[in-house]
Design brief:
225 residues; alpha/beta; 5-stranded parallel β-sheet; 4-stranded antiparallel β-sheet; 41% helix; elongated; transcription regulation; two-component regulatory system; CheY-like_superfamily
Amino acid sequence: MKILIIEDEPSLQELMARSLAKEQHVVETASNYAEAESRLADYSYDCVLLDIMLPDGNGLRLLGELKAQDRREAVIIISARDSLEDKIRGLEDGADDYLPKPFHLAELSARIRSVARRTRGGGRRGITLGNVTVEPESFRAVVDGRELQLLKKEFDILAYFMQRPGHVIDKAVLAEAVWGDHIDQADNFNFVYSQMKNLRRKLEEAGATIELKAVYGFGYKLVCP
């Protein structure tokens, strides 16, 4: 998953980022309202961890902007303000969960997994297309009941496409989603081509009925029977 942490306390922000990165998530951070608004305008995320009290604005207003734009990001509010009024307002405004500070990192990870299951489709633990299943929580991919051995980025790419069947994905969008928004500093996308080539080969050799097809001049799309 690609996660944006919006948190103005440097030590907590770093602690959360390190913990989630160890769980193989792509993690980006913002320390204030303006920075968060800029990142959300330029990039998309799977989950946003949103502090209410930011030095230059209220996180609930940012939540309102996200929902008004019909954004797909799951939002978990993380805040030291644990009043019932704040919690109710956050949930009514469209937040997927509310986690008061202080919290254990294990609980944060569990909350993220929980909202990911809900937003990916009614609580399913895996995503299945054709004879291929990916399980984002355990980082497993299975073809016809046999586990497919993938590198971390290969799995991330496959999971990304499995959530968007039939959609043409531009190579730059794919790179940003899987490698993070610092990818715009890269000179070329050769690393994307290499990962895609290996993933497509592994799927074909495993007898997958889905196919990651190149769309000349645009990018790639997942085609399933």
